[in-house]
Amino acid sequence: MKKTNFITAISSTALLTLSAAANAQETWTMTSTWPDSLGLIEIDRHWVETVNKLTDGELSIEFRAGGTLMPSTEVFDATETGSIEASGDWPGYWAGTDSAFSPLGTTTMLFNGVDYLNWIMQWGGWELYQEVYGKYNLVYLPYGIVGSESGLMGGVPITSLNDIDGKRVRLAGRDQGRVLSGLGGSQVSLSGAEIYQAIERGVVEAMEFNTPGVDYDAGFAEVVDHWTVPGWHQTGSVLGVMINKDAWDSLSEQTQGKLKIAAESTMAWSLSWLERKSTEGAESFIEAGVEIHKLSEEDLEKIQKITNQVIVQSACENPMTAQVYHSMVSYLEHYSTWRDLTVPFNMSRTTDNLPSLEELEACINQ
What we know:
The protein is an alpha/beta fold. The chain is built from 14 helices and twelve strands. Helix 12 packs across helix 13 (319-339). The protein is globular and about 60 Å long.
């Protein structure tokens, strides 16, 4: 073989090897906290399908429904240690590990769904998710926005806050439980799969789970007679995917960018998808004969007062929690300059009764 042909052959082989390495497909295993029976899993699937399309062979995510690989309570540890590369979640489930996860997942009487979207995308929220999850060897991509949840449903009427006193209520969330306690109720922690039977058997008098569409699909119209609105306990929520940091770092910057694009796209889709499902779910509950009760403005003002106290209490127990809440309240105060000029066409919750920024700042610096 001539020298030039030999060099050409070696060069061609090297280029093919480099090309193959560059195009090598990485495969991830991902699960979720949601089983197939709960509609929220469609948000996980939407993100996975979008990623698999956008990455075009660079990354393939094999998705398994919650409970098929391990109990949902174990997915945080499994993702942190790298047993699996990723898992869809609701941040509030990990508040027992770090209370800062609580407001990252949902708030009581603070954010609605659009507020979460604004805060994450433009007011520093995304960075705080990375800071909190980053302590556990995780990268976090918020990709689901949930609007106001249904409210309280059950077998007995709750027409005012007086009716909550002494009631056992299935309620998710650390700070939500504290607010409920301030109203005289007792928080009962149950997984989504346990709620139906708990209501049917009278283990709890009232429950909340998610939005009307998700709640109706879970069959709750078969076991509840009364529904109290609005859903003050979770006025907005976030879902997302936690990714093992080592798995994330193994991706090229280009692929990482595509995962972020898929998350932003899914976040916008989820908000409108759930609002449509909420409308249809509400219609279905009404058609099923469930009686609706609406809390008074006075009752909501009382809940807001207790909530503001709980937020400051939680903030002073953990400087990171204080930092998250401080960022949220700062956003609401800043955005109000424009928001309040657009009433009644505004896209954010309008309220002047907010937790004290000064008290939250003191909690950060204590």
